[in-house]
Amino acid sequence: MSSAAEEANHKPEAPTAPAQENTSEENPLQAKADELGARGNEFFKEQNYEQAIALYTEAIETCPNERFYANRSFAHFRTESYGYALSDADKAISMKNSYTKAYYRRAAALMALGRFKKALADLEFVAKRCPSAKDAQDKYTECKKMVNKIAFEKAISVQHQEKSVEKMCRDMEFATIEDDYTGPKLENGKVTLEFMKSLLEWYKKQNKLHKNFAYRILCDMETLLKTQPSLVEIPVPDEQKFTVCGDIHGQFYDLLHIFEINGLPSPTNPYLFNGDFVDRGSFSVECIFTLFGFKLLYPNHFFLARGNHESFNMNQLYGFTGEVVSKYSQNMADMFTLVYNWLPLCHLINKKVLVMHGGLFSKDNVSLDDLRSIDRNCQPPEEGLMCELLWSDPHPLPGRVPSKRGVGIQFGPDVTEAFLKYNNLDYIIRSHEVKAEGYEVDHNGKCITVFSAPNYCDQMKNLGAFITLKGNDLTPKFTTYADSPHPSIRPMAYAYSLMS
């Protein structure tokens, strides 16, 4: 590690001056690689991570060096390509097994994937090598706490498995509604359109829904979602518009903007939100109760799919659990975990367009019946159909390759074409990836990505987008929009301290 301050500031490492025997005159390739690496660092500082990755890659191809691998690992980490970040950190360590920064980078990637035990070993190495570096010592201590916390929660998980949200609601007394509470109220315990309109205005003003109503919405959501199959079929009438939105990631004021430009949900204005409703953005509670409220109001015209962030590990790391505990309680956070287990995994529009959060599969001839038969009432596994529905990504080359994320796979245009032909489908819609224009059309128009969180995490400068189509014309139409102003609460404000 070049310095504790450098680690604390999370900067890529600058090129070091070549040793005397490797001067620019004697080693022009090294000089060229260092120049490429320095340019990559400048793009990194500007948060142009893709360009930084391209320059680090060129530097590696010119003259391989552990510093370039470590810096590229960090850039991949910032683009959430945790599998690539892990691979680059491994390569840096293989080139120089005493290179402390590479262990630090590998630990970050492992933590992002929820592999805390392995991360702890790397952070222990860093802490021993840098006993005076406060940042390294703090991260080691925090990671150790997380490992112990997970072990404790696993020990009591058997008790939790026997619970349901309904039972948890019965076990606790709903809080009395204070006389001075002037916010939205359920009518006879039910969501109404007036309640939803009032809720949106209440949330705009940064108020909190009373926990009595919040708990009731969770109880009713579990009851409703238990009746849903893992693959939900959506019939869209010929002339009716249908809207598909991608990730919103706790960006409540951008969710409001979608409704402003596209209309509130209704039986004649149906929506599908395609996973990753929460985490990272610091208004995830507002987002999820808005979406759950509309699902209860219009169960046959408002649809929700599970994303990879509707899971215990992701919520622990990226802020949703911390936000729920801050605004309500740990008990409510536990209830969300149970409700998320019942979210459907994919949707089929007019039997021709399949929508899932992540993507396709590591094996051929997966049928729609295979997807219908998935037992989804669990935390997402690290392999198999459910995992790949939530985590996989397309890539431009034929075939399948390991995932850049470290979970799921990457699938090529031939895989998409074969899947569509096998199931008599027109195309797939998926989300899961930031796109500069808010959407991207791949695989000869057969694989469409939609991402609905503009200026993701207040730093990516991307547009958001949603898709509209009609029952008699399934051709997708794209609407894009910029981010909306929001209160000055930073993204990841509630995230686990090692990830924020």
From TrEMBL:
Superkingdom of origin organism: Eukaryota
TPR repeat coordinates: 33-66
Gene3D superfamilies: 3.60.21.10, Tetratricopeptide repeat domain
Enzyme class label: hydrolase
Protein's UniProt keywords contain Oxidoreductase: no
EC number(s) reported in the record: 3.1.3.16
A family per Pfam: PPP5
Stored InterPro entries: Calcineurin-like_PHP, Metallo-depent_PP-like, PP5_C, PPP_dom, PPP_phosphatase, Ser/Thr-sp_prot-phosphatase, TPR-like_helical_dom_sf, TPR_rpt
PROSITE patterns linked: TPR
Residue ranges occupied by any Serine/threonine specific protein phosphatases domain in the UniProt entry: 209-485
SUPFAM superfamilies documented for this protein: Metallo-dependent phosphatases (SSF56300), TPR-like (SSF48452)
Residue positions of the active site: 309 (proton donor/acceptor)
Alphabetical UniProt keywords: Hydrolase, Manganese, Metal-binding, Repeat, TPR repeat
The keyword Repeat appears for this protein: yes
GO MF annotations, alphabetized: metal ion binding; protein serine/threonine phosphatase activity
Protein family membership: Belongs to the PPP phosphatase family. PP-5 (PP-T) subfamily.
The protein's name: protein-serine/threonine phosphatase
Organism: Anopheles coluzzii (African malaria mosquito)
Organism phylogeny: Eukaryota, Metazoa, Ecdysozoa, Arthropoda, Hexapoda
